[in-house]
Amino acid sequence: MEEAPFIAFRRPRVDVYELALELVGQVHDIIADAESTRFYLKDRLDRNATQIAMALGHVAEEMPSERWRGYRKTLRIVTDCGTLLEVMARQGCLAIGALARARETVAKLQAEIVPLALWRN
């Protein structure tokens, strides 16, 4: 039996759409607990989280050679969402545990989407 000339280790692919749906649930928990946070911040955070999942759903339907554009647009929304979470944390939002989990999810989304947004055919 011949041995392979090298071993390739592949990192398991993370489903970015599932991560986006996880973020939507986490944002829902934050908004439910964040009574002292200003309405417009909660509203924008909720809209951005939902928009991330919707944008990723649309990207899947695009031609493979054009998907990078959709991922770039989505990356901007993910960055906005992360910034809103930072602002809420600085303003003393009481949902600290949920904020930390959502910020981790945003970081994971960014890490997964950046290579997809840079790729071109």
List keywords for this structure.
mainly alpha, 121 residues, single chain, de novo design (two linked rop proteins)
Describe the model:
This protein is an all-alpha fold. The protein has a single domain, classed as 23S rRNA-intervening sequence (de novo design (two linked rop proteins), Up-down Bundle), CATH 1.20.1440.60. The chain is 71% helix and 0% strand. It is built from four helices and no strands. The longest helix has 24 residues.
Instruction: Tell me the total number of β-strands.
Output: 0
Low-pLDDT runs: 8-12
Major beta-sheet overview: none
Per CATH, the architecture is: Up-down Bundle
Kindly report the name of the CATH homologous superfamily.
Answer: 23S rRNA-intervening sequence
Give the DSSP E fraction (strand runs of 2 or more residues).
under 5%
Helix and strand layout, with pairings?
Blueprint: H1 16-33, H2 39-59, H3 67-90, H4 96-118
Helix pairs in contact: 1-2, 1-4, 2-3, 3-4
Short description:
By secondary structure, this protein is mostly helical.
